[in-house]
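User: C-alpha cells in, sequence out, please.
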C-alpha cells in the first residue's frame, strides 16, 4: 500500500473521477470585534467579499484505493494533515465514504497567511468537490457545519459572494447586491500571527468602529464613496503597532484611493476602485516594490468548477 500523503500519478487506464475547481479568496470590507467568547474566540461583525483571485484544486477520487494524497506547487504549504483541504477530505471520508482514495493537487495563487482566506477557500473547494465526486447526500447546511470544524471562514468560502458575518464569522447573511468596483490587493512579505493579534486586541484603544448596517446600505445602492467611508478594521490598532510596515502600506494605499483597509488580521491591504482601469493604474505605481500585487473583480461565488 502506498503511504498516505505521497502523491500518486494518475493511471490513464483507471476509472478515477476527476474535478477541477477554483477556490476564491476572501477580503474584509470592514471588521469590528464586538466581544470575547467564553471559549476564547472573539465575536465579530464584518462584511466578507469573495474576489476572483483563486487557487486551483484538482480532485481525483480513486475507487478501490484508500488514503489522501496531496501536493501543492507552493513550498510553504503543508501537504499532510496540517493542510485544511487534506483535513476536509479526511472528514468526509471518515464520515461518509471511507472506501475511496483521494488525490488533491493545489496550484496556489492566493498568498499564504495573508488575511485572504486561502486555506479556508481550499478547504471549501475540497468539501464541495468531494461531495459531488462521491455523490454524498450532504445538504449545504450540513456541509457548512462540517466546514466550521475546519475554520471560521470555511462556511463563507463555501457560498461566497458578499455577506454580513457575525459570531466567529460563521453566522452569515447574504447581501443582495452586484459590486461595481475593482479590488487592488497589496500583501507585504511578512508573517502576521492571527492568534497574536487577537490576544493583543484592546477595545479601549479603538477610536473608530465601522457600521456594517451603513456599509450594507451603501453596497445595496452601489455607492462606492459610502462604502469607502465605512472601510474600518479595528484590528489595525494591533497589527499596525506590531508591524509598522503594514501601517506604511495602508497609508500608501490611502494615497491611491479613499477606499482602503487591512483585510482580516493582515498583512494584506485592499483598495477599492471605480473600475479595473483605475485599479491597474494604481497597481502600476507599486510594481517596483517587493510585495505581492493583484487587481481584479469581486467574485459572485466562493467556489466554481473549471469546465
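Assistant: Sequence out:
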Amino acid at each position: 500500500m502506498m503511504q498516505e500523503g505521497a502523491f500518486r500519478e494518475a493511471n490513464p487506464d483507471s476509472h478515477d473521477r476527476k474535478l477541477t475547481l477554483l477556490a476564491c479568496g476572501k477580503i474584509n470590507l470592514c471588521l469590528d470585534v464586538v466581544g470575547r467568547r467564553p471559549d476564547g474566540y472573539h465575536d465579530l461583525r464584518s462584511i466578507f467579499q469573495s474576489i476572483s483571485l483563486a487557487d486551483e484544486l484538482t480532485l481525483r477520487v480513486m475507487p478501490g484505493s484508500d488514503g489522501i494524497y496531496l501536493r501543492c506547487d507552493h513550498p510553504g504549504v503543508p501537504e499532510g494533515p496540517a493542510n485544511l483541504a487534506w483535513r476536509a477530505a479526511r472528514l468526509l471520508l471518515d464520515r461518509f465514504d471511507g472506501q475511496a482514495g483521494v488525490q488533491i493537487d493545489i496550484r496556489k495563487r492566493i498568498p499564504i497567511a495573508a488575511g485572504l482566506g486561502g486555506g479556508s477557500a481550499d478547504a471549501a473547494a475540497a468539501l464541495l468537490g468531494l461531495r459531488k465526486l462521491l455523490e454524498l447526500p450532504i445538504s449545504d447546511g450540513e456541509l457548512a457545519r462540517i466546514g466550521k470544524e475546519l475554520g471560521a471562514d470555511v462556511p463563507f468560502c463555501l457560498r461566497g459572494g458578499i455577506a454580513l458575518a457575525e459570531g466567529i464569522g460563521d453566522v452569515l447573511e447574504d447581501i443582495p447586491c452586484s459590486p461595481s468596483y475593482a479590488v487592488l490587493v497589496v500583501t507585504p512579505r511578512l508573517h502576521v500571527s492571527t492568534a497574536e493579534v487577537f490576544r493583543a486586541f484592546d477595545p479601549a484603544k479603538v477610536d473608530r468602529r465601522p457600521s456594517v448596517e451603513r456599509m450594507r446600505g451603501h453596497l445595496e445602492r452601489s455607492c462606492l464613496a459610502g462604502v469607502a467611508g465605512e472601510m474600518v478594521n479595528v484590528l489595525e490598532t494591533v497589527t499596525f503597532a506590531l508591524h509598522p510596515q503594514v501601517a506604511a502600506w495602508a497609508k500608501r494605499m490611502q494615497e491611491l484611493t479613499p477606499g482602503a483597509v487591512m483585510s482580516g488580521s493582515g498583512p494584506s491591504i485592499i483598495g477599492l476602485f471605480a473600475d479595473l482601469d483605475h485599479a491597474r493604474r494604481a497597481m502600476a505605481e507599486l510594481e517596483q516594490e517587493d510585495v505581492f500585487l493583484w487587481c481584479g473583480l469581486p467574485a459572485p461565488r466562493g467556489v466554481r468548477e473549471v469546465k
